[in-house]
């Protein structure tokens, strides 16, 4: 079966589950440069719509290598025995996703700016807004339609500096209330909100969005009776994401799980209600789309922002209130992009063999994640936990030539958490030289 045209990755994951297919395949550069075009594979059967994990990934890679080494492209047999999946699947995804939120009555006065980041999200987002009765977003026209050259950005990743500059400019131009940005294959979501900085706008971190969405999903789940032995429910996030989600789970009587990095692990957690990773990935409807979905997450965020606006509040106000409720978590990241991957190996080997016993003057407990733990399988990562709640995790990126250092600090106030994070970041920058 082939789609009749380009389609967002969440729609493919949804279709794989709906059609009970043996597998689903997406060819996309996702949020990476054009030369890094990739190949995403989704499982069928009981895990339909969720990403493959080891050893399936290695087995598929071996088959691809065998074909590449033994055949030219012209020699590979071509098949015309396939069925075209038409627009009805997109429409079905829109109908199911529209039903996730309660009736949206407060968001129609919001002025929302949308960018597809040169990807494929717009037409589905447009249909979804129409389905729930929301006005069409104001669009960043330069980035609206698919263009695999990603001409307006160095990297088509909303996390990258400068990637949302056109969105900020459009928001200032139209005096918007909110920015929603998908990455090119629309499985990730960035949110921009008005801010007092010189640009007038800032991008929320993935951890901030994860807290907002996690709290909302947990609140709704508890109201629906989840959190009992008869109706269990679990919130999950990757080990490099903010552990504030654990506090949310505790408040609403739900389970909590940490996983290795990647939705291929998060989506397989039993009784999952919500999962997220700090890299702008959120799953709010695991029963239908068991993968990160930047489109459904965008709709729920707009609904939340509308409800807040009806109370005279903003998302920034709400995040501050959640900080008072769960504790103020400050998270950050140090990313080292390299042209020589051996640089990453050298830094990891040095820290693994000579782990610091203290960081920024506070004792640090070291865990080599390559050994694995009771709840997690082995992965190439290093973890440092401190008695004051600070945490450092260092790992190579799985999709880019980067070494990533994930930082977390907790404070009684937003400012104290930010100060603690700054101390931690300064100390780790010295260790990573």
From TrEMBL:
Which parts of the sequence belong to the Alpha-D-phosphohexomutase C-terminal domain?
356-412
A GO biological process of this protein is: purine ribonucleoside salvage
Asked if Transmembrane is a keyword of the record, the answer is no
Q: Which UniProt keywords apply?
A: Isomerase, Magnesium, Metal-binding, Phosphoprotein
What SUPFAM superfamilies does the annotation carry?
Phosphoglucomutase, C-terminal domain, Phosphoglucomutase, first 3 domains
Signal sequence span per UniProt? none
**Could you tell me which InterPro entries the record lists for this protein?**
A-D-PHexomutase_a/b/a-I, A-D-PHexomutase_a/b/a-I/II/III, A-D-PHexomutase_a/b/a-II, A-D-PHexomutase_a/b/a-III, A-D-PHexomutase_C, A-D-PHexomutase_C_sf, A-D-PHexomutase_CS, Alpha-D-phosphohexomutase_SF
Gene3D superfamilies, per the entry: Alpha-D-Glucose-1,6-Bisphosphate, subunit A, domain 3 (3.40.120.10), Alpha-D-phosphohexomutase, C-terminal domain (3.30.310.50)
Recall the GO molecular function terms of this protein's record: magnesium ion binding; phosphopentomutase activity
Q: Where is the Alpha-D-phosphohexomutase alpha/beta/alpha domain?
A: 5-68, 96-191, 206-322
UniProt cross-references to Pfam families, sorted A to Z: PGM_PMM_I, PGM_PMM_II, PGM_PMM_III, PGM_PMM_IV
Named cofactor requirement(s): Mg(2+)
Similarity remark? Belongs to the phosphohexose mutase family.
Q: What is this protein called?
A: Unannotated protein
Query: Which species does the entry assign this protein to?
Result: freshwater metagenome
């Amino acid at each position: 079966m082939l789609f009749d045209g380009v389609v967002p990755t969440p729609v493919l994951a949804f279709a794989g589950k709906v059609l009970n297919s043996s597998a689903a395949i997406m060819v996309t550069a996702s949020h990476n440069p054009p030369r890094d075009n990739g190949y995403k594979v989704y499982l069928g059967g009981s895990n339909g719509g969720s990403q493959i994990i080891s050893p399936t990934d290695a087995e598929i890679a071996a088959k691809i290598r065998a074909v590449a080494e033994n055949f030219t492209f012209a020699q590979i047999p071509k098949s015309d025995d396939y069925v075209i999946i038409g627009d009805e699947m997109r429409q079905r995804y829109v109908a199911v996703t529209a039903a996730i939120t309660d009736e949206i009555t407060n968001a129609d006065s919001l002025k929302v700016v949308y960018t597809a980041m040169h990807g494929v999200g717009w037409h589905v987002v447009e249909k979804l807004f129409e389905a729930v009765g929301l006005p069409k977003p104001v669009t960043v026209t330069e980035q609206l339609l698919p263009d695999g050259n990603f001409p307006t950005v160095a990297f088509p990743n909303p996390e990258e500096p400068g990637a949302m500059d056109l969105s900020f400019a459009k928001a200032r131009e139209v005096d918007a209330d909110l920015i929603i940005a998908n990455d090119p294959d629309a499985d990730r979501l960035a949110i921009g909100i008005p801010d007092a900085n010189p640009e007038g706008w800032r991008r929320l971190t993935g951890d901030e969005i994860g807290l907002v969405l996690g709290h909302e999903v947990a609140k709704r789940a508890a109201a629906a009776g989840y959190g009992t032995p008869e109706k269990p429910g679990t919130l999950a996030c990757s080990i490099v994401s903010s552990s504030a989600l654990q506090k949310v789970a505790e408040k609403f009587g739900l389970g909590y799980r940490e996983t290795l990095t990647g939705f291929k692990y998060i989506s397989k957690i039993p009784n999952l209600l919500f999962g997220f990773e700090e890299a702008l990935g959120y799953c709010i409807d695991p029963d239908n789309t068991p993968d990160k979905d930047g489109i459904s997450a965008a709709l729920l965020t707009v609904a939340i922002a509308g409800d807040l606006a009806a109370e005279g509040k903003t998302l920034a106000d709400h995040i501050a209130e959640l900080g008072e409720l769960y504790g103020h978590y400050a998270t950050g990241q140090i990313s080292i992009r390299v042209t020589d991957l051996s640089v990453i190996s050298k830094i990891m080997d040095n820290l693994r063999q000579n782990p610091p016993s203290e960081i920024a003057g506070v004792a640090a407990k070291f865990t080599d994640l390559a050994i694995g733990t009771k709840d997690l399988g082995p992965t190439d990562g290093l973890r440092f936990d401190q008695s004051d709640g600070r945490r450092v995790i260092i790992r190579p990126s799985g999709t880019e030539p980067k070494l990533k250092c994930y930082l977390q600090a907790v404070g009684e106030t937003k400012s104290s958490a930010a100060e603690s994070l700054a101390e931690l970041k300064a100390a780790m920058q010295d260790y990573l030289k």
